[in-house]
Write a structure and sequence with these properties.
- Chains A, B: One of its GO terms (molecular function) is 5-(carboxyamino)imidazole ribonucleotide synthase activity.
- Chains A, B: It comes from Lutibacter holmesii.
- Chains A, B: Catalyzes the ATP-dependent conversion of 5-aminoimidazole ribonucleotide (AIR) and HCO(3)(-) to N5-carboxyaminoimidazole ribonucleotide (N5-CAIR).
- The structure is a homodimer.
- Chain A has about 375 residues and is of the alpha+beta class.
- Chain A folds into three domains: about 90 residues, 3-Layer(aba) Sandwich (Rossmann fold), CATH 3.40.50; about 55 residues, 2-Layer Sandwich (Dna Ligase, domain 1), CATH 3.30.1490; about 200 residues, ATP-grasp fold, B domain (D-amino Acid Aminotransferase, Chain A, domain 1).
- In chain A, about 25% of the residues lie in helices and about 30% in strands.
- In chain A, strands 10, 11, 12, 13, 14, 15, 16, 18 and 20 form a nine-stranded antiparallel beta sheet that branches. In chain A, strands 3-2-1-4-5 form a five-stranded parallel beta sheet, with helices on both faces.
- The first copy, chain A, is globular and about 60 Å long.
- Chains A and B meet through helix 1, strand 17, helix 10 and strand 18 of A and helix 1, strand 17, helix 10 and strand 18 of B.
């Protein structure tokens, strides 16, 4: 094993948002020197990493030069310049997840093709290079439209119900999927290290805000039968093995009305659906990411207690310097932990933080989560 | 409630060692802007706080000028210049724990007198201004000698068995205590906020390294009867109420052979005996400290799982650039979390980090803790 702890080893991270910030908690715990690249001077990681570099994650030279300054490179966001990563990798830099995996995943068309090629259950899809091409095709309404690239937190995903809805779509490289009726949206995070050790987290259940298309509650463990849970973990494991990826893979799944498990999409990194793990799991997803990319033994992904995560998104009608109203009221409740990402400006539906609610009893946690959600407000003053 | 989260509020901390570093994890989680003063440019907090100032904690002007730059001041070590804090407080700065409390506690003679005045059970003691004065007194061997000031981690504490041992004592302001035979060394952390809300953590049991006089295992919950545990929490509560302190108070206790609980000494801050709380408790001692000094509602101090803490101290015979040998072997064990404080140089018995072992079953955790202790080595290369 390399000496990562209080050593000269330099870990590079592309992206300095909230996922990077929560990763820093773990690299600080292990005293691993961490260098961050982000486009924004006021990125959540900027002040609290060992070394911060400002620059575009999509710029070849910027990413390449950053890679030359570190001993191992990882990401907290998949929208990064892949060509520079491929060159750095060819020159001997360890990069996890691997650039080839990132390249497949960052394009939803390639991602879906990969699932089909590897017999991973997923809803049928078609790829289109332009909106024009899509319109010239025979389409079965309703369907799901996804921008092939740069979609994030529900942007770039639309449900198209009729001809009229087509006019709202962006003219871009995209995929169209059958709309599959489902009982539950689930997710499983898989960790895999270079030695091939692989572990899955328990299945979580996701509930989305109906308008903003952002996750509202993430519930762990998912309230599903054990057989469905096992099937979900099995499918997620199969996806991770197919990619042979190193690092974390968050696998978003649907439980269909027939209790089939199909893959919606994957993210090659720590994920919103795993934030509950900071308080609830023996090993949080962020520590697990560090362990997996450094080829350390993986930690126990099981839970100490039930956990529910509520996203803190900017309230509608407020833009400007953020104020977390009624914070003292949620801090009064047992097992409630707010995480504030450090974005100074709120905007409607902007992800500003999250709150984790843990309890030995999941039903109790669910009750508290609802009170939390109805109490705290993310506004501006 | 003031707006502490992602706001212009500036929290000042005197001291930037490992306790400060673990506190920063919590202020980062809440995005509270945190400014640190420490004498060492390479203090564990230096690179990861929002703003770092280098300067002596014992220098009046340094501490005073630092206090003028922050909105609220706290400490992670009690050996700080009290006169400057009294002046800052008189000028309106909120300082928690209060300078008057720090003044009493940082001097072990005043601390013991305070216990006596407030009917807090403690072993009988005498105060001496010099070694000469002590030697001129009638002494009953064996007794416990403590330097009145600046003792830390067992330095400044000696068991004096005979006349000969007197020659090993420093010529300093000191106290002498009766040596009380005890069954257990226990500790209880108490949190109290400005509104007077007060909460005690479960009782922990401490085991000391026989030579280095440093804690070797901290075990939570202590393996004692419920009635003794309740008595210990009661005594700790009484101490905190007597001080009317704001912040955390770590109360070190002895369980005597008659199951009496007497106070050994107190520390007005987060404490080594509470490190287990990061992984085991609903609210860690570090988050609780932040909550208490900011007059936020206190969190739940109870545990999710049993926790054991093993200090990582420098192995004898090694000085220089630290290497944590066999780290991968302890990372393989479930529920094991190392914390590396970020000191680049190891020395014999220097506190370099700690490892927490959590498990639903305390006996299992205790077995793992022993394997951990016998596996990992803190050496230099």
């Amino acid at each position: 094993m390399k000496n990562y702890f209080s050593s000269n080893f330099r870990l590079g991270v592309l992206g300095g948002g909230q996922l990077g910030k929560m990763l820093l908690t773990e690299t600080q715990k292990f005293d691993i020197y961490t260098v961050i690249l982000d486009g924004a001077a006021d990125a959540p990681c900027a002040q609290i990493c060992n070394e911060f570099h400002q620059g575009s994650l999509m710029d070849f030279d910027t990413v390449y030069n950053f890679g030359k300054k570190v001993d191992l490179l990882t990401i907290e966001i998949e929208h990064v310049n892949i060509e520079s990563l491929l060159k750095l990798e060819a020159e001997g830099l360890e990069i996890y997840p691997q650039p080839s995996v990132l390249k497949t995943i960052q394009h939803k068309g390639r991602q879906k093709d990969f699932f089909v090629e590897n017999n991973i259950p997923t809803s049928p899809h078609k790829r289109f290079a332009t909106l024009e091409e899509l319109k010239n095709n025979t389409l079965q309404f309703p369907f799901v439209w996804k921008s092939a690239q740069f979609g994030y937190d529900g942007t770039g995903v639309k449900i198209v119900k009729n001809e009229n809805d087509l006019n709202q779509l962006a003219d871009t490289d995209c995929i169209v999927e059958n709309l599959i009726p489902f009982k539950n949206e689930l997710a499983v995070i898989v960790a895999r290290n270079k030695s091939g050790e692989i572990k899955t987290y328990p299945v979580v259940e996701m509930e989305f805000h109906p308008e903003a298309n952002q996750v509202e509650y993430v519930i762990c463990p998912a309230r599903i039968s054990e057989s469905v849970a096992l099937k979900a973990r099995e499918v997620a494991l199969k996806v991770a093995e197919a990619f042979e990826h190193i690092g974390l893979l968050a696998v978003e799944l649907f439980q269909t009305e027939n209790d089939e498990i199909i893959v919606n999409e994957v993210a090659p990194r720590t994920h919103n659906s795993g934030h509950y793990s900071i308080e609830a799991s023996y090993t949080s997803q962020f520590e697990q990411h560090v362990r997996s990319i450094l080829n350390l033994p993986l930690g126990d992904p099981e839970s100490k207690v039930a956990g529910i995560m509520v996203n803190l998104v900017g309230d509608e009608g407020f833009s400007g310097n953020v104020v977390y109203e009624n914070m003292e009221n949620i801090l009064k409740m047992d097992g409630v932990t707010p995480h504030i990402y450090g974005k100074k400006e709120t905007r409607p539906f902007r992800k500003m933080g999250h709150v984790t609610i843990v309890n030995n009893n999941l039903a109790e946690a669910r009750k508290t989560a609802e009170i939390v959600k109805n109490t705290i407000r993310v506004i501006s003053k």
